[in-house]
Fold:
Amino acid sequence: QVQLVESGGGLVQAGGSLRLSCVGTGRIFSINTMGWYRQAPGKQRELVATISRGGSTNYTDSVKGRFAISRINAKNTVYLQMNSLKPEDTAVYYCNADKITTTPWQYEYDTWGQGTQVTVSS
Structure:
């Protein structure tokens, strides 16, 4: 069973920092693009950042210059370093993998973690 497991969320004051981690578990040979999404109460889930297997990154405008996504392919792990946090960053943050190679000839698409809560107080 392939799973993504997030960790690192918590309560932090405005201006503070958190680092989120997401690790793929189970039968995994490799993961294509990984990303972080978030959903605040009453709002749609939105993209925060993505990173390709080769390291190309993409960020939503509201987090550019404050957040940094990175990964270690050999560990099937992606990170999100969040600095200068604002109350509007409060949300459940979800890890995503667009394509996971589970065998040399089989793939899983659009895999999601269970989410980790990030709360930023003013």
User: Anything to note?
Assistant: The radius of gyration is 14 Å. The chain has a mean pLDDT of 97. The CA atoms of residues 2 and 22 lie 13 Å apart. The chain has no helices and twelve strands.
